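Review this today:
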Amino acid sequence: MLRNPTVPIGAISRFEEARFDGRWQVERAGAGEWALAGFEVADGLWQELSETGATRDGRVKPLGRGILEVTYEDTTTRDLWVLWIDPDHNTAALGDPDGRFGFVVTRVGKRRADQIRAAEQVLDFNGYRTETWATVQ
């Protein structure tokens, strides 16, 4: 478990699903059970790239503001919470209430150290311990 489950967690209300489309890379990870290196979202389609280079396809749909469900081709699902995203939707803090995984992601080519640090601070506030996380990119 990557987060303290007694700390309340919340998804960000300013998340705009349509602006989440595009290619994202993982900058920092406490991946736990999900060894994600990056992903691409396009019109509800999801393709992820693992740290080993394997790809996995699925569909993504909103369950609520800032809460997404990824359904893979084998019908397994994963909930993905957007805990924070910058106003331009270029950097995001991602996780789940159970603390099974957590990531700081940026759009490919849009990496900003100050926004990565802001995402880490939000994750820490939500019960994660990002000081132990690996830098992926």
